[in-house]
Amino acid sequence: MESSPDIGHLQAILLVGGQGTRLRPLTLGTPKPLLPTAGVPFLAHQLARAKSFGVERIVFATSYRASMFREAFGDGSAFGLRLEYMTEETPLGTGGAIRNAAQALTCGPDDPVLVLNGDILSGHDIHAQVRLHQSRGAAVTLHLTEVEDPSRFGCVPTDENGRVTAFLEKTPYPVTNRINAGCYVFRRSVIDTIPEGRVVSVERETFPGLIEAGELVLGYIETAYWLDVGTPAAYIQGSRDLVLGRLRSPAMPGPCGEYLALPDSIVSPEAKVSGGSVVGHGAIVEAGATVSGSILLDGCVVGPGATVIDSVVGPGARVEGGAVLSDVVVGDNAVVGARNELLAGARLWPGVVLPESSVRFSSDV
Ligand code: GTP
Q1: What angle do CA 30, 34, 40 make, to 5 degrees?
Q2: Position 101 pLDDT exceeds 90
Q3: For the Nucleotidyl transferase domain, which residue ranges apply (predicted)?
Q4: DSSP 259
Q5: Distance between CA atoms of residues 114 and 300, nearest Å
Q6: Does residue 175 carry a pLDDT above 50?
Q7: Distance 94 CA to ligand 1 centre (A)
């Protein structure tokens, strides 16, 4: 018979120590899990979701810019949670980080521990994952999701009973479209077998080792909303999906329509803002500007007649009159001079000033 775990006392580890290199330059000053997403730090969505599943105590495994996490979330009481922080002096990788953070857990050796990657937006049922783990007495139960193009990820085949049979690296010819969704339930005593004080990857070392040793590693397959916000395009998509209500989050700062305007922002009545965009605190969108599917961070300015599509404009940055951005990241305090066009993955580093273009078209006023 299925045993029912006391989810109310479930403890969690949140992995937030990565450098977020794919999201540079945004992550040069702010770790990825703290980037504003639909108006609040990304992690606020994960914390609120974990709490909605009855998690009460969460250990943050920090490394890169560790002190910023405590500054943002403190002891967690404002969120109705108890938060602890365990910092690695040098990054220990995903497995090493779990082992290090586990020192702050207070649960027993057979209890389940939830481990979450700090850059995943997921609508899956954490209770169902924990129930499966407990009822089958697994060593680890991984949330697996299905993606259209698994060649961008390592893939995770299972047998007919849900047992994971291998952990395969990225390949152009994946054997399944099921991938590791970055949310695990570990039996506490299994964490204690991860080597201490050295770099360990759960994906490359711990999970393949457990499978090799004949331990029960289970796949919990659920294809609810899922997104890894590791790249600028995915980060923008996550924020947009939250604003447009494609994923519900208890952490949303308020009701949104086509876009979310945070307090002290100014959007000209003659500007068009849409597609789940966010206009940050103190940000300004001037007359004739078009902003769609984008994140405008605090204090930035989009000048008259400028166009910003599917892009991030960093804090304090300026996009001057008539400039066009599509699929671009503009770093903190950078300036895109008037009438420049930046497209397809361009990234402007913090403080860079792109002078205005002297070219004028007959249609320009
Ligand atoms: P990229 O550099 O862009 O690949 O991003 P990342 O550094 O976040 O790496 P990745 O997306 O593979 O990491 C998955 C999760 O594990 C993220 O939530 C990271 O914050 C976290 N993580 C990765 N490496 C470490 C580490 O060495 N220590 C800790 N504490 N967390 C880590």
Answers
A1: 130
A2: yes
A3: 12-241
A4: E
A5: 38
A6: yes
A7: 7
* pLDDT per position as a tens digit, 28-57: 989 999 999 999 999 999 999 999 998 999
pLDDT, mean of residues 338-344: 91
Q: What are the C-alpha distances in Å from 238 to residues 37, 235, 244, 248?
A: 7, 5, 10, 11
32 is catalytic: no
For ligand 1, whether the C-beta of 19 sits within 6 Å is yes
What's the average model confidence in pLDDT over 120-125? 95
CA–centroid distance, residue 234 to ligand 1 (Å): 16
Atom from ligand 1 closest to the CA of residue 199: 27
Mean pLDDT across the stretch 202-208?
94
Q: What's the 137 CA to ligand 1 centre distance in angstroms?
A: 28
Ligand 1: residue whose CA is nearest its atom 29:
17
Number of the ligand 1 atom closest to the C-alpha atom of 32: 8
With beta carbons less than 8 A apart as the criterion, state whether 118 and 32 touch.
yes
Is any atom of ligand 1 closer than 6 Å to the C-beta of 97? yes
CATH topology of domain 258-361: UDP N-Acetylglucosamine Acyltransferase; domain 1 (2.160.10)
Burial class (CB in 10 A: 0-12, 13-18, 19+), 71: exposed
Nearest Cα residue to atom 31 of ligand 1: 17
Least confidently predicted of 80-84, 147-151, 176-180, 293-297: 147-151
In this prediction, residue 5 carries a pLDDT of: 45
Right CATH for 7-228 from 1.10.10.250, 3.40.50.300, 3.40.190.10, 3.90.550.10? 3.90.550.10
Supply the pTM of this predicted model. 0.90
